[in-house]
Structures are given as structure tokens and as C-alpha cells.
Amino acid sequence: MASGKAGWLVLMAMLLTSGAGGWHMDAFAQEKQGTTRQVKKRVQPEYPELARRMNLTGKVRVEIAVGADGRVISMVPIGGHPVLVKAAEQALQDWRFAPASGASKQVVEIDFTGTQVK
Asked: Domains of the chain: which residue ranges?
């Protein structure tokens, strides 16, 4: 049990120190299950205040289902810190993609790293 607590402390220390450089957000869609649809409207997520206080950075990966009209109809987080995942999901609700003949799925990765901007 002690090793589990020690591992948790090491993980938290890594998370807290990994953001020393500040942050920026870079979002892009990656191909998964077929072709990637062109993003027509991209909304950058707001960097959560809790993440800022923790100097939390990292990448969030979310699998999204896009309807024929280009709207995001569902999403499943597949990686990233829960605080950052929530911010990414809120922004993804407002993303719009090129229309298509049917629904499709793809993975979107949002990167919360870089230089802090105030």
C-alpha cells in the first residue's frame, strides 16, 4: 500500500512541475476510422482556473461523433487529465465540421501546453 501512495505522490509532483513553462492551446483533428472531416468552426477551450493554479498541462484526446450536418453529436474522452477533459469537451460542443453524407467518428487532440498568456 505504501508504494501506491508513493506512486501517487510522484505522479502529482510530475503533474505539478510539468507546467513550469506556462500554457497555450493547440487543437487539431487526427484521423481515426476513415477520413477526417474539415473543421469549419474551431472554438479554443478556456484554460480552467484550477489547472492554472496547479500548473497543469497536457494533451486531451476525445473521440467525437459528427453528424451529417457537421455538428458534434457525441463524445468519449480517451485520454487526458479530467480537469482539462471537461474544458475540451465544453469547447468541442461548439465545433462545426464540413457536412457529409452521413455521420462519422474521429479523434480530436487538444494540447494545453506552452507559454502562458495573460
From this structure: 2-113
The residue type found at 26 is D
Q: CA 67, 70, 72 angle in degrees (round to 5)? A: 60
The separation between the first and the last C-alpha atoms of the chain, rounded to the nearest angstrom, is 42
Residue whose cell numbers read 494545453: 112
> CA 54 to CA 50: how far, in whole Å?
6
3-class DSSP assignment, residue 22: coil
Share of the chain above pLDDT 70, in %: 66
User: Domain 2-113 falls in which CATH fold?
Assistant: TolA/TonB C-terminal domain (3.30.2420)
Report which residue type is found at 47. Answer: Y
User: What is the per-residue pLDDT for 113?
Assistant: 80
Within 13 Å and on the Cβ side, how many CA atoms surround 1? 0
Q: What is the pLDDT of residue 35?
A: 62
Record the pTM: 0.68
What letter would DSSP give residue 71? B
Asked if 50 contacts 107 with a C-beta cutoff of 8 angstroms, the reply is no
